[in-house]
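dude i think i finally got it to work??
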Amino acid sequence: MHNALHQTTELQKMYSSQIGKTQLIRLREVMNRTKISRTSIYRLQGKGEFPQSIKIGRMVFWVESELHDYLDSKIKESQSWRMHSKSKSIQ
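look at this
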């Protein structure tokens, strides 16, 4: 039991600190940043439309930079759609 507790503590330290240049974040933080529900996150993952999670032991993480890239692409997609929509209405 002590070993499992030690492993969990080490994973929590790893989660809360940078690993090289890679920052790992937990589901709650992913939900806070994206405003997407847990169910929708896993549904989008299944369709290949959301960054994949990684499992370390019993804990699930997302790579922060991958989530950042996903959000950037959604912002650009939205801006592109609005620009395209505006240009059609001007014509």
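The two ends are 69 Å apart (CA to CA).
im so relieved honestly
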